[in-house]
Each structure stands twice: as structure tokens, then as C-alpha cells.
Amino acid sequence: MGPVIGSGSISFSFYQQKEDKRMKKKVLAVLMSTVMIGSLMAAPVFAAENLSDTTEGIAQFEGLTANEAYDFQIVVKSFQSTYWQAALQGMDMAKDELGVTYTAQGPASESDIADQVNMLNSAINGAPAGVGLAACDTSSVLESLQAAVDAGVPVVAFDTGVPEPPEGSIVCTVVTDNVAAGEVAAVNLYEAVKDKIGQGAPVRIGEINQDNYALNIQQRGLGFINKLIELAAADGFTVAMEGNEFYVNEAEGAVEGDADIILEVRVPAQTTVDLCSTEAGTILDKEDTIAVFGSNQTAAEGLLVANDNREVLGDTIVGVGFDAGTSIKAAVEDGTFLGAVTQSPLMMGYYCIYALTAAANGQELIDVPTDGYWYNAENMNDENIAPNLYD
Question: What residues form DSSP beta bridges with 176?
Fold first, then answer.
């Protein structure tokens, strides 16, 4: 598995204090590559406006040591995709540096919400030094988080935040700027297809979201939708929404009735590549479809599976993906996908362990936003892109 890139501009003195010289050099090489910021169509940091906050979030861990050999519990969404293996790789780096341990668990799929809640409850009941949580359904964990507060167990949210958690339950959130991530996908996709809009008949753009209940997926999906509506409006075009009720209702600026663009959002009944493929196939089979966005690794891989028997992506339909993984990287490289947006699961995992350790020490924390990049066939091997692209 290849390394994944970390956050942007940082204080490197944090790493210079590490005794493990080999690890220090490895982490520095990964992190320094993120400082380079390209143009929008080349390699933008999509959370560039948060770089000062990112620096402050990382600086709070400078000189951190564990007061004890803490043991943490980590609850991930599942182990369905290599994204989560990248996150655990980052956790392994951090635990070795700090002299702490962790145990990770997750449900069979990201749709198994009740199973994850049971795992979370069990983790809290074990009274660990802290819990790292990537919630499948952010509303389903609220009672568990209150139990964590009552038990004095600090929780660090990573990958996805939890809106309005019980007071004092989430001590730190380590996440991508998911709204900005969706916006970058929209900007690059729109630029590629805008000449096909307003030529008479309406055109269709699809979005595949693996769910409508995880905050990161909601934010990313709506970031794409609202930015695309904004870009279309700036060119004098209108957008009508179809598909999943949540995204249709939350879209900003869409019109009802006839429009220049039909933006269709589809969500599978369960979070699997096969079911995402079924939803994607429905959009790919429509004659007016000109582009489709898969908003995470599972959705993007489903889009590619749907294309296997159709072979329309990169030909008559523009495809845009998200995250990395072998099939997505290959699709970007061979032109099946116009490009994709990558985030930093390794560094989310890394800073999750650092945040848990700081919290266990009794330190008050601020959130740690992590950045990412748009990549395509031209830039995916660049030194500031390639470290993002895990297999």
C-alpha cells in the first residue's frame, strides 16, 4: 500500500523532535510534498482557505508524549475499502511514535449501522483511554456519545464529524473539508462538459453517493450539487434535481420543472460496490447523461463496474471519481475518469491517535482539518500528488 499525503503547511519542528530518525524522515517526506499548491485544473489544495487552521491544529501536538502506555479503541465504518487500511497505517505510525496501542473494529459494511453502534457501546463499556470513531450514521451514535461523557471516555471523531454531539463528548474532529472536496469535483467536471449545456434539449449529470446519513458523505454530495448549481447559474443555466429525497431537498438554487441540466442523485439501499454499480448503471443508460460523479471510493468503484459492460465513460460520458484505490487510479490513468479528488486517510488516522493521546493526557484540543487534491492523468505522478494515492 502506498503512502497517503498529509495536511498542507505545517510546523515541521513537531517531527524534528522524534527519536526514531527513520520514521521522522518518512513522515517529513510525505508531509513536505503537500506544501506545493497548483492551479485548479492541475493540483489545488481544496481546503486552502483552512491552511492556517490546519497549522494550528497540528501545532497543538508539538512535543507530545504519552503520560502512560494508553490503549485506545478505534471504531471504523467498515473494512470494505482500502481507504480504511490507509487510515490504520497512519495509526500504526502514530502509535509507534507515542508508545501507545489501539484495537480497531468495524462492521461488515457501512450500511450495518446497528452493528457499529453495538461495537461503539462495547468499546465505551470497556473504559479505554479513548475512542476513535468514524460514524456510519452520525445521528445513531448520539446516545453512545452521551454514555462516553458519563463514563469519562474521550472520543475523537475522524473521517466524518458528528453534528451537535452531546456536550463534551467529541474532544477533537479530524476530517477533510468535505464541502470543498465536493466543490472541486464539481468545478473540474463542469469545466469539461459546459459546452454541451444549453444546446437545445436538457442534459443530465449524475451523482452516486453511498449513503445519505454520514455527515462527510452528505457534505461532499451537497458540496458538489450546490457548486454545480452555482456554476451553471453564473453561465445563465438552470438546474433541476431528481433522485434521492435528502439531496433533492437540501440542494440550494435548483428549479422545479424544465431546466437546462437535470442533476440526478442516486443512493443505494446498502453501501456496497455492487449496489452502487446498479444505481450508476441507471444513470449511464439514459441517453441525455453527459457526466457522473462517484463521491467516495465505494461509489466511484461502483461507477467503474457499471461501465464495464457499457464502456461509455471517457467516451460519451465524463466520469469523475473520489479517493484512490487500484481501479480508480487505473481509470484516471487511462482516461476512463477525467480525474478524481483524493483525501488523506493515512494522516486522519495518524492525527486521530495523536489527538486521543493528548486527550488522555488531559489536554484541551482544537479540530484538525486535513487537505486533499484534484488529480488526473497528467499530474497523478507528481511529487505532490502521488503520495496521496493508496492502492
Answer: 370
pLDDT tens, position by position, 79-95: 988 999 999 999 999 99
Taken in order of first residue, the domains within the chain and their CATH numbers are 13-176+344-371 (3.40.50.2300), 178-322 (3.40.50.2300)
In the beta sheet, which residues pair with residue 342? 373
Backbone φ, ψ for residue 246 (5° rounding) = -60, -50
pTM summary value: 0.80
Question: Quick one: cell of 56?
Answer: 494550528
C-alpha grid cell, residue 230: 452555482
CA atoms within 13 A on the CB side of 60: 23
Alpha-carbon distances of 185 from 15, 133, 156, 171, rounded to whole Å: 32, 26, 28, 30
Instruction: Tell me the pLDDT tens digit for each residue of 137-193.
Output: 999 999 999 999 999 999 999 999 999 999 999 999 999 889 999 999 999 999 999
Strand partners, 71: 101
Task: Phi first, then psi: give them for residue 53, nearest 5 degrees.
Answer: -65, -40
